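Page 47, continued from p. 46.
Same chain as before, 56 aa.
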Amino acid sequence: MEVQVWDSDPVLPVARAADAGRVGQQGLEIVMAVCEGFEAMREPVGKRLTARLALG
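Result:
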């Protein structure tokens, strides 16, 4: 399955280093842990994020 989202903010997401003391801002790390593929691309306006998951 492929899921795409778009938003108008041109800043691409960056996965942070693991930090057990950090509260929040761990969504990208979770997505990357469960997906087979992840891609972030700038668009003329904003960015498009694509996550690929295996269904089985």
